Amino acid sequence: MIRGVLAAASMALLLLVRPVFGADSLRHFTLLESPARPFPTRLVLLPPDVAVKEISAGGIMDPVPEWTEQANANIKAELRAQFADRPEFSLVDAPEFSAEEKARLEDFQASYMVVGATAHWATTLGGGEWAHKRNHFDYTLGEGLAFVREKTGADAAVMVIGEDYVSSSGRKAAMIVGAMLGVGIAGGASAILVGVVDLNNGDILWMHFDRSGIKDLKDRESVKAMMTAILATLPVSGGKLALR
Question: How many domains, in total, are found in the chain?
Answer without folding.
Answer: 1
